[in-house]
Design goal:
Elements lengths: L1 H18 L2 E4 L3 E7 L2 E6 L3 E4 L7 E7 L3 E10 L5 E12 L2 H6 L4 H17 L6 H4 L1 H16 L4 E8 L6 H69 L4 H22 L16 H26 L1
Antiparallel strand pairs: 1-4, 2-3, 2-5, 6-7, 7-8
């Protein structure tokens, strides 16, 4: 009976010992196998695997090879002497799991410090406003600068995501006021340009209108002059003395001018100094009108006799 218990106990211990030969590797993961503290090989393929039992082979670590990320809120100073908080996200993959695990102490922390130092280096040469628009350029420059160094940790950097910089509330308020004043200044410039265009167009329109008015006035005066010339020719042709005809034309134009002035509103007319009779012009026109009527009667009389 005692032998039975001993055999059973020995079998259980042997079974448990043999179980140390089995281990599992998950998807996107690698198992590091060591023998008495020395790395002997790395199992890359996922699934149930067999190794030498403990202590000859030990699964020291299962290192993930999937895409990982770590975040940090980086405090940095800009070129225009502002202290801002810059959220960054570092996305990476472990390419050489043995180098990552055995050759480095706290590799993720070292990578974090390396990336942070490079980000501070680039942001210190940028103004606060530039951090909003050049985040992609800064990310590419940092990756290019640290790529060689992170290779020593068995890591590949996939991307560095730089989020919007966070400034103190007073700085953000001042920044918004500056942007608002710039927009108001741009609006004032646009309004001034529009007003200038309106004034130029109005001046061009006035110019065209004045040209048309001038052409109309010139045509009107031409017709009046032609009418006066025709009337004088008739009067001289009917036997009126040319000097009398000229006087008639002068008086007629004088009265036409007074009529046009009266049409424009209330005006004071000052007569020529030394004038003895203010109604001379009107009297002369009546006389000349009677003369013209007499000329017309003489023309009609021969026609009637015929």
């Amino acid at each position: 009976m005692e032998l039975f218990f001993i055999s059973t106990g020995f079998g259980i211990v042997l079974f448990l010992y043999l179980l140390t030969m089995l281990y599992m590797v998950r998807q996107r993961e690698e198992a590091l196998i060591t023998s008495f503290g020395k790395h002997v090989y790395t199992q890359h393929r996922p699934g149930l695997k067999v190794k030498w039992p403990w202590p000859f082979n030990v699964v020291t670590a299962n290192v993930p090879t999937s895409l990982q990320q770590m975040t940090e809120k980086l405090e940095t100073k800009t070129k225009d002497d502002l202290f801002v908080s810059l959220p960054i996200t570092i996305q990476f993959e472990i390419e050489d799991t043995a180098k990552f695990y055995f050759d480095n102490q706290a590799p993720l922390e070292q990578i974090r410090k390396l990336v942070s130092a490079e980000v501070r280096k680039y942001t210190s040469g940028k103004d606060f406003q530039d951090l909003y628009y050049e985040r992609e350029e800064i990310s590419e420059a940092v990756i290019k600068a640290v790529m060689v160094h992170v290779d020593d940790y068995g890591v590949i950097l996939r991307r560095i995501i730089i989020d919007e910089p966070l400034a103190p509330a007073t700085v953000e308020q001042a920044f918004n006021q500056v942007r608002a004043s710039e927009r108001l200044k741009d609006a004032a410039k646009n309004e001034a340009a529009a007003d200038y265009i309106r004034r130029v167009k109005a001046a061009e329109a006035d110019k065209e209108r004045n040209i048309l008015i001038g052409e109309g006035v010139a045509g009107f005066r031409k017709k009046i002059a032609e009418g006066y010339a025709e009337l004088r020719s008739i009067m001289v042709g009917e036997g009126l003395d040319p000097a009398e005809a000229d006087r008639f034309m002068r008086d007629a134009m004088h009265l036409d001018t007074l009529r046009d002035i009266g049409d424009k509103g209330n005006m004071v007319i000052v007569t020529e100094a030394g004038s003895s009779d203010k109604n001379d012009n009107l009297t002369n026109l009546v006389k000349y009108d009677q003369l013209l009527e007499a000329m017309k009667d003489r023309k009609r009389t021969p026609t009637a006799q015929a």
